[in-house]
Amino acid sequence: MLLILDFGSQYTQLIARRIRDARVFSVVLPPSSGEAEIRKWNPAGLILSGGPQSVTFWLHRWRDGDNGALDELTRLVCADLRRLAAHHLRSEMAGHTLQATALVHELYLRISSLQEMDWKSSGHFVGVAAQMMRRILTDHARRRLAQKRLRVTLKGGDIWWVPIGRRSAEAIDRYLRARARSRHAGSPWLWIGTRGHNVSHFGDSGIRAMLRRRGREAGVQNAHPHRFRHTFADAWLAAGGDVDSLMNVAGWKSITMPLRYAQGRGIARAADAHRRLSPGDRL
Is the pTM of this model over 0.70? Predict the structure, then answer.
């Protein structure tokens, strides 16, 4: 029986497989294994795989409380992390403000809180780093989107800037990431399609058709953009929002439509109040 102490070599599993091929039993142990652990196995031989320059060696040192090991670990994987950062940034929309160096720096700050994780290998470390990079980019995009508004072209050609909420920002962020992978990512139009005669511009008719199809799938008949606008206005007023703010958010130049929604909401409130306060029902 042979023991293999894995100091982070990429060949450890290959060595163990070759030993098994020779019909010899072997066990892989971490380099932190003490003398008692090794003697317990009573091995016929001991193989040291890897060395002080391996990522896994410094991962185990860091996990065991050596804070300085993270600096050495970062030095060893710096090139890999920069390549990983560049790969993720290529998937971002043009005009993003986060650079590879800043992304790696933010990763370093976040990953320093994972010292007690049971790190398995350099691949484990890089996999966790990749997940954290995606999270950092998502958080960065959400912060940018939360500070922005959408430019909407109204009927007649007028431009209106509409504020967006957190959930809308998250949905737009997901769309922009998918859009960046499309072969039509260079289109000047925000919305692009997947089929049709002009995929690079998902226009008004395409959006209406998509809403109708999605509405039918959800069991909602005759779904169209103005229905969403109506629902938004009604929910805004029902939650206590005022007419002036609704007018500014939704882009109405005339107060006629907001007042119409307010009147309808007033009738609904009166009906609710009647159900609660009806003298006849309280007898």
Answer: no
